[in-house]
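Repro:
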Amino acid sequence: MMAKSFQTSGKELTGGIRQNAAFVSSNHSTDGTNPIAYANWLTPLTGLLLFLFICFLPVSAVAQQTTVKGKVTDMSTGEAIPFANVVFSGTEIGTSTDFDGYYTLTSTQDHDSVTISYIGYVPASRSIQANTSQTIHVALKETTTTLREVVITAERGENPAYAILRKVVENKPKNDKRSLKAYEYENYSKVELDVGELGKALKVQPIIKNMQAALDSMPALMDEQGQKLLPIFLSETLSEVYYRTDPEYKKEKILKTRLKGVGVEDGGLMSQLLGASLQDYNFYQNWLDFLDKQLVSPISDSWKSYYDYELVDSLYIEDDFCYRIEAFPKRKQDLAFNGTLWITQKEYALKQIDVRLRESANLNFIDEIRVQQQLIRTSAQPWLPEKTRVMLTLRPFRLTDASLLMKYYASIENPVVNEARDQNFYRQALEVANDAQMYPEDFWIQNRHDSLSTAEIQVFSMLDTINADPAVRRSVGFIKALASGYIDLGSIDIGPYPLFFLYNQIEKSRFGFGVRTNKDFSQKLRIAGFGAYGTGDQRFKYNLTANYIFSHRRWTAAKLVIEREIEQVGLDPDLVRDNYFFYASSKWGNLTSPYFYQNQSLSLQTDLWKGVTPTFFFRHTGFDPLYPFAYVEQAENPASPVLHSFITSELGTELRLSYQENFVATNFRRISLNNGKWPVLNFRYVYGMKGVLDSDFEYHELSLKVFQRLRLGLLGNLSYTLEGGQILNPLPYPLLQVHLGNESFFYTNAAFNLMNYMEFVSDQYAALRLLHNFDGQVMNKIPGIRRLNLRLLLEANVLYGDLSAENQKLLNNSARENTPASELSTLSGQPYVEVGYGIENILRFIRIDFFHRLTYLDKPDVRRFGIKVSGQLAF
């Protein structure tokens, strides 16, 4: 085990002061006379000067300090050594080098040397000067054993590292922590975010200027290259992690958190996002999930397809004799690491790993990813990661020349293996203690696994200063309002402001205003109201909503909605209303098939079990078209009256099944983390109740939607959406399934991209959407093209549908009334099919899709081929 590092604490400094004071008060002059007694015969002025000198001598001694900084490297390669211990010799006052091998060590006590040590290297000591600041760089020599003393069985002429890698793969089941029946441990983690390399374009931005102005009176935070860093977030978290197999469950209890960040208010959400369960790096897996991509492990089953290796030497790390192997990607564009592995000779287990993913890999906005991990053997043999460090450098926008530096550190203590708990214990995968953020600094001094570095202590102080500055708070508030659509005014929010003014052909100038409560008003209840008036239609619109969260632990929520609004046929407001900017844009300009509606609804959602979430709802809606619309009540009766509006009352339920799906939660909503291992199923049933509150129709509607994203490793990833439904009674076409087409130049995965608007309608249907992204695996192998980091996409959309005879008659009668229904047709036994292929990551942002329509080509205004453009910020 590595020696634990200790940071100089306030307690140690106080002890030093007392020691010096005691020494001075008992000190005697060279002739044995007590100086204070000796002062009695001096003149009053001389006695006063001597008294002041004696009193201030301890303070002068304390004011001096010894500071040592430098870099620790490998003597043979010159590479930086992270995790090296640096201590004042003979003491426990020390620190560890960072990812780049740099360290800073400070003390107010007198020391004459420092000692630098790291597993696998010969410790080194260097003399220092007390009470000064100095820079000492140290190159460590490895404690190696020549390979001639090691017997490696390999085929003649074969790379000797290959025999070791085959043994590593063969012994994975014995060494992988997933082979344990169960394990649990205490986890401590730190996350730091800094902005560096601020170019001119960013330095003039108001929030950056205000943050830098707030820090003018403080020492600058610098990186190892001497560039200024602007801290924006630092956290430390103490949690308990639990895992069991058969069936597989994971659980994390966030016990304590300490968060400081620019504008960070929702500490509960941040604690969940920064927990150990979302930062699990297991190199025994073939693929590691990272930023929505999969990186191939250097010890994956298919290691020979992605990596070249070099067996460098062998050495002892603690009591384990290890092979040191360098791994290199075969193609620099592949999502593969470059770095060093230490493999034990006895078990062929991964003892330590230090790898990087550089900018040349086909990964957007990333300058570098570095992962360094040390593992410990459990009593049952499989290994657990004892310490993990991750450093990520992002450069989101090249033109601003700014970078975002993220540092993540985690360590574990008190591991327990093969003691599985009852399945009900794992019910809630992520849990945050109610008092997680109520613990002072004294608690962290006693309980954090590793001391904070001098720089981290400085960051906490700098973030306090930044957040206390009024100009910074105003700038942060402006950015939050810009992103959320709401302006924070204490316990209430004003908005959504994108809806405050709109203009369209129905309402003309539309003026609106809204307000809602937030978590400062109540942790469980949110009330929101919005009103608008159109000068053209001279109608008042409104929306009143109340949300109440009965339980955050076992998520149970109720929602009441009362509204009167204008919408468009085919645009479901429940799907787009949370995106205020898109929702506002849909109400500008010329509205397509607009209608005025009134709606009252009540819904209740709860978790019955983990992954089983039903929702029950009642909805009463009135449909009043603002475009030519008509239907007959009885299609078979020519004398049936022609109607132009209708009312529905619906009672329904939706059941969501999501095995092993994990969520993070805010006060009023949950966000799925999309586990990807199992499909998510949504089953929906709606019963239309004729006569209830003047409802015009009785009907039954069934639908099922299945979504999953499959990570296929070597082949990239495949997303599929399978959905189908049936409406069992004759209804006007706005209540049927009017399939969404796309006549625009832009791509959307919610529509059929070569289908015209209002082209097909169905009362029973099934659709399959497939999207396969090769993640550069194809383009990376084409000479001359692979340097562009392009990614190939394949896509297919298939739709089956039908319309009953009763609904066909209703549709024909509606068409005879000169309404837009004349443009609708049915899918008569033949599916609608479109296939496509595309290229994404053009200039890191642009995606171009090429579609071919394969069926229903004899209809007028059919587009057989189309090009769609979209933009996305994807890693």
